[in-house]
Amino acid sequence: MIREYLLLPIREKGRFARFIVAGVVNTAVHIGIFTLLIKYLPVAYANVLGFLVANFFSFFVASYFVFKVRSRSLRQYACFLMASSLGVVISYCIGLICEQLNLTAIAAPLLTALILPFFSYLLQRFVFIGNIGCKTQTKVD
Length: 141
Known about the structure:
Helices cover 76% and strands 0% of the residues. It is built from five helices and no strands. The protein is globular, with a radius of gyration of 16 Å. The two termini are 26 Å apart.
């Protein structure tokens, strides 16, 4: 994976670096919302609401900061949410594989943290600047 990153053009490396920064901030938003809600709601509800708030926040950060697009739409957000949901599925599958291989519990989040950002970046890149039905805006780059 490091080799693939090194082969990226400079513009793409900048986007990927901004994507990582945005991911760290988004994680903090998710944990913050979860921490506030856990006092009033069951864990599962607090976690889902934290995810949804963080996902909505992440949509705007990704569009403005990472991919620098001007306009956004509800349709584009739906595609972004689907891409994020696919990330959840990938994360779940990594967990299942780790269980099947009898790896230590910490292996699942560590492998997810190493693998998922590359898939997530590619999916979000298609949502904001790719050639799929979600693209409805003009790039600023």
